[in-house]
Design goal:
Blueprint: H1 4-9, E1 17-18, E2 21-22, E3 24-25, H2 36-49, H3 59-79, E4 87-90, H4 93-108, E5 114-118, H5 127-136, E6 139-143, H6 153-159, E7 164-170, H7 182-191, E8 195-199, H8 211-214, E9 218-222, E10 233-237, H9 239-244, E11 255-258, E12 263-265, H10 279-295, H11 297-316, E13 321-324, E14 333-338, H12 343-352, E15 355-356, E16 358-360, H13 365-371, E17 376-380, H14 387-404
Parallel strand pairs: 3-15, 5-6, 5-7, 7-8, 8-9
Antiparallel strand pairs: 1-2, 4-10, 9-10, 11-12, 13-14, 14-17, 16-17
Helix pairs in contact: 2-10, 3-10, 4-5, 11-14
The structure holds 4'-deoxy-4'-aminopyridoxal-5'-phosphate (PMP).
């Protein structure tokens, strides 16, 4: 049994009152809170080690470089990538997606080629492909979805052809919590010779990952959603693909030799890491990964599934509440609307009771259009959340509905 009270002690931010009530933090899909070890790692770095990496001849620079590269190894293990050459540090999921759209996309996608995404993509996995397709006169196709929030595999099959150059698909929907069976989608795309990118922003916080088993070509996630700092993320890419791709940004770090006539590029992964990186946050990410590994990702998943089942049952029992997205396989995300109330008002009233949830379109406007709504209220769980907190949310929601729903 996990000792959740003990885990909560690791998170200073959780122990405060908001608007006169103990905070219930259910906005984890937007960003998770940070354990003390992550916060302390940042302070320790700036107080004791701060130096630029990879080029200093002095002791602090060597220490910073060593710690920085330790995170790369920890991220490799987290994803089960075969080599640290395949682990590129970015600003986050958005930058990882843009890097691939720009570098792989611009060099490999030609007029008339096709790119496939899905109905439930975050804007960051739509817009970069739209920009690319517009520039290249390529065609963007979209996998449809059922009313329950599951992608339709048979329809996906119909979209694929030898024209398909790339499929980019979300592993877990941030708005609905749907876990997509992406291995199946990857296998099929590969049969057509297409490359597959996986947006792992919402799967990385919740369960075990294995990029070799998935056999995806690219995988991206953000540190801030897995108990790590903001401004930091990871792009995994298969070595053979990364080697063929042109750099994304040019500058220091990513070069071997520069003359005015010609520049030769650095080896992987540095070819894609131009400029001074986000050193402190990268070092701190290792502590977030350690935190998850120490608990165990199976245990994190089991605890969150338990909360999801409990909360779903409670929420379904409330009159006027409609859960949006009822896929068979979900992470701990409950999106809902209240009949007779705007989602924004529900969120504001919950906040007045100290309950932090998200409202709106969650950066998935096309998904909202598909469902015929303009937004939802979203509660999303993390390892430190409890059934008592779910009870607080449910109790508060019942009162709000009794008082305000028309
Ligand atoms: N994809 C998904 C599914 C997300 O949930 C998010 C963050 N909400 C992103 C991409 C973008 O992540 P970031 O803002 O950290 O770059």
């Amino acid at each position: 049994m996990l000792d959740i009270a003990k885990i909560r002690e690791e998170f200073p931010i959780l122990h405060q009152e908001v608007n006169g009530f103990p905070l219930v933090y259910f906005d984890n899909a937007a960003t998770s809170q940070k354990p003390k070890k992550v916060i302390e790692a940042l302070v320790k770095y700036y107080e004791g080690t701060n130096s630029n990496v990879h080029r200093g001849a002095h002791t602090l620079a060597s220490q910073a470089t060593e710690q920085f590269e330790q995170t790369r190894e920890a991220a490799r293990a987290f994803l089960n990538a075969s080599s640290t050459e395949e682990v590129i540090f970015t600003k986050g999921t958005t930058e990882g997606l843009n890097l691939v759209a720009s570098s792989f996309g611009r060099s490999q996608i030609q007029e008339g080629d096709e790119v496939i995404i899905s109905t439930m993509e975050h804007h960051s996995n739509i817009v970069p492909w739209q920009i690319l397709c517009e520039e290249k006169k390529a065609i963007l196709k979209v996998i449809p979805m059922t009313d329950e929030g599951e992608l339709i595999f048979e329809e996906y099959e119909k979209l694929l052809s030898e024209k398909t150059k790339l499929v980019s698909i979300v592993h877990v929907s941030n708005s609905l919590g749907t876990i997509n069976p992406i291995k199946q989608y990857i296998d099929l795309a590969h049969r057509y010779g297409a490359v597959v990118m996986v947006d792992g922003a919402q799967s990385s916080p919740h369960f075990q990952l294995d990029v070799q088993d998935l056999d995806c070509d690219f995988f991206v996630f953000s540190a801030h959603k897995i108990y790590g700092p903001t401004g930091m993320g990871v792009l995994y890419g298969k070595k053979a693909l990364l080697e063929k791709m042109p750099p994304y940004l040019g500058g220091g770090e990513m070069i071997k030799e520069v003359t005015f006539e010609k520049t030769t590029y650095n080896d992987l992964p540095f070819k894609f890491e131009a400029g001074t990186p986000n050193i402190g946050d990268t070092i701190a990410l290792k502590y977030a990964l350690d935190f998850m590994n120490e608990i165990g990702r199976e245990k994190i998943a089991a605890h969150e599934q338990d909360l999801l089942a409990y909360a779903t049952e409670q929420m379904k029992a409330i009159d006027r509440v409609k859960i949006i997205g009822e896929a068979r396989n979900k992470v701990g995300v409950i999106s809902f609307n209240v009949e007779g109330m705007h989602h924004f008002d529900v969120g504001m009233l919950m906040d007045a009771n100290g309950i932090a949830i998200r409202t709106g379109h969650h950066c998935t406007q096309p998904l909202m259009h598909r469902l015929g709504i303009d937004g939802t209220v979203r509660a999303s769980f993390a390892i430190y959340n409890t059934k008592e907190e779910v009870d607080r949310m449910v109790g508060s929601l019942r009162k709000i509905i009794a008082k305000f729903a028309k």
